[in-house]
Specification:
Elements: H1 14-30, E1 32-36, E2 40-44, E3 48-53, H2 56-68, E4 80-82, E5 85-91, H3 94-167
Antiparallel strand pairs: 1-2, 3-5, 4-5
Helix pairs in contact: 1-3
């Protein structure tokens, strides 16, 4: 049987939450690999907005408009081009990024709190089972001791009775 040990309860830590939010921000801004159950996976860029064009002139016009809006090209996206096909990636607008990050941070905090609750509930369940087993062992030990005492008493009584029969001589 695998002996498990009860661990200390987890409690909410703002510094841990901040570290998790920082990791989520990095994943949001720089992209991350997302695995899919049946089709493998791919690299996703949540902070990027991809634009495709049919002509290089449309791409240039759009790029100038993006620059005027203060949006910069997404550095981790490789622009694609083909016959009548051009694509480029830009960071989402600041408003879109802020809205995305609010949702991401809420999810990170919810996941962290759920992890704390799950850990603590698992530890309570483990401790409950261990205490139950401990009480069962105590009860079994007590019953075993009582049986041993009764057996010893019965053996002593049987021996005395048998010895009393031996010491009596028939007349």
């Amino acid at each position: 049987m695998n002996k498990q040990h009860v661990q200390q309860p987890m409690s909410f830590s703002q510094s841990e939450l901040d570290a998790r939010k920082s990791k989520a921000l990095d994943s949001y801004l720089n992209g991350h690999y997302k695995s899919y159950r049946f089709t493998g996976g791919s690299f996703v860029h949540p902070a990027m907005q991809e634009f495709t064009f049919n002509s290089i002139e449309d791409l240039v016009d759009h790029s100038q408009a993006m620059q005027l809006q203060g949006r910069s090209r997404y550095p981790h996206y490789i622009s694609l081009q083909g016959i009548g096909f051009y694509s480029v990636g830009y960071y989402k607008s600041n408003e879109d990024q802020a809205a995305d990050l609010v949702l991401i941070y809420e999810q990170v905090e919810a996941d962290y709190r759920a992890e704390i609750d799950e850990h603590n509930e698992a530890q309570i369940e483990l401790l409950t089972q261990q205490l139950l087993q401990q009480e069962k062992k105590k009860k079994m030990k007590k019953e075993e001791d009582e049986n041993n005492r009764l057996l010893a008493s019965a053996a002593k009584e049987a021996e005395e009775y048998f010895n009393s029969l031996i010491t009596k001589e028939p007349k």
